Amino acid sequence: MLGRKIARHGVAIIGTALLGGLLSATMVRLAPGFDTDEAQIDSHLNSESLRALRESRSQQNNILVFYLQSLKRASQGDLGSSLTLHQPVSKLLRERAPLTLRLIGVALLLSWGAAMTLALSAAFLRLYSYDALATVISGILLCLPAAVVGLLSVLWNTPAALAVAALVFPRDFRYARNLLGRAYSLPHIITARAKGLHELRILFWHVIPVAGPQLLALAGVSVSLAIGAAIPIEALCGLAGVGQLAWQAALARDLPLLVNITVLVTLVTLLANTAADLIGSMVGSQPA
Amino acid sequence: MKIWRRVACAVLLLVVGVSLCATFVAPAGYARQYREAADAPPSRQHWLGTDDIGRDRFARVLYGTRLSLLLAPAAALLSTLMAAVIGGLAGYLGGMFQRAAMTVTDLFLSLPWLFLLITVRALLPLNVSPLVSVLATFLILGMLGWTSAARVLCASAACLRDSDFLRQARASGIPGARLFWIHVLPNLKPVLLAQFWVSIPVFILSEANLGILGLGVAEPMPSWGSLLKELEGLVSVGEEPWKFVPLILLVAVVTSFQLIVSKQEEEFAV
Question: ∠ at Cα A229 (A228, A234), nearest 5°?
Answer without folding.
Answer: 110
